[in-house]
Each structure stands twice: as structure tokens, then as C-alpha cells.
Amino acid sequence: MNQLSDERGVVDLPLRLVVTMIFGAIILGLIVYYISTNCFLMKNMQVAWKPSLVEINGGNGKCEIEIRVKDEKGNPLRNAVVTVMGLGGADSEITGKDGKVILRLNITIGERREGYLNIKVSYNSCYRDFYEENAIKVVRVD
């Protein structure tokens, strides 16, 4: 058979090139992602806080909140950025080697009877950010 008359190889060539380029781009993207983040799968962190209920006298008050940040295995996460915000107050700190931080806020509840504080925790790029809206209830006691 004459090679010049066999057109099957010429017809399949563009399809093979397109498939090869698509697979190559996917693999190159995975390699670049792994090099830049050093992880394939995002991990979750465990965040615990106390108290979950804060009582203040009058419309203004101070509160102290302890937050612990751990990985999925229960090991403390050092250098996690923890932020508590809401009711006109906010504080942010970095966790120590024990994964713990104590935040102090000046909050204003005003004429309302109750309000809430939000918690946000960020760690390195291998961990999903943690955000809990209305995490801590603040109650006005007179």
C-alpha cells in the first residue's frame, strides 16, 4: 500500500494533538498548583471557643474570649490568625504554640437586649478559612 494514498494518519493527527495538549495542560496545572500550595487537598481546622454567651451590664461592656485552633488530628495550630468582630468591637491575634489565643473586646449593644459576635480563623493555604457568624451571643443584663 502506498503511504501517500493512506490519509487515515493525516486525519487522526489533529485529534491526537488536541487530546495530548488538553492532558498536558491539566497535568501542568496540577504541577504548578502543587508547587505553589504544597498540598493537593484542602484541610479543615477545628475551632473551639469559650464562653459562648457573654453578659454585659448596660449598653457597653468588655469581654474576654478564649479560642483554640487545632488541625484535623487534634494538634494545635501555631500562627493561625484569629479575629472576633461585631457589636462595634473587634480584636485579632495570632495563636501561640498551644494553638490558643485570648481576645479582649469592648462592645456596644446599645438599647438592644442581645447581639452576636462573629469568629474568623485563617491559617496557611492548605487549610480552609473558618468563619462562624453569630458564634457568640451577647446579652444585656440590667
Q: Could you please describe the fold and organization of this structure?
A:
The chain is an alpha+beta fold. The chain has 2 domains: 38 residues; 96 residues, Immunoglobulins (Immunoglobulin-like). It is built from 1 helix and 8 strands. A 5-stranded mixed β-sheet has the order 2-8-7-4-5, with no helix packed on it. Strands 1-3-6 form a 3-stranded antiparallel β-sheet, with no helix packed on it. Strand 7 and strand 8 form a beta hairpin. The longest helix has 30 residues. The chain is elongated and about 95 Å long.
Number of strands: 8
Nearest-integer average pLDDT: 88
Question: How does CATH name the architecture of the largest domain?
Answer: Sandwich
- Outline, from the CA principal axes? elongated
Determine the CATH superfamily of the largest domain.
Immunoglobulins
Structural class by SSE content = alpha+beta
Quick summary:
The chain has 142 residues and is of the alpha+beta class.
What order do the helices and strands come in, and which of them pair?
Layout: H1 8-37, E1 46-50, E2 53-57, E3 60-70, E4 81-86, E5 89-94, E6 100-108, E7 114-122, E8 130-141
Parallel strand pairs: 2-8
Antiparallel strand pairs: 1-3, 3-6, 4-5, 4-7, 7-8
Q: Which key phrases capture this entry?
A:
142 residues; alpha+beta; Immunoglobulin-like; 2 domains; five-stranded mixed beta sheet; three-stranded antiparallel beta sheet; 8 strands; elongated
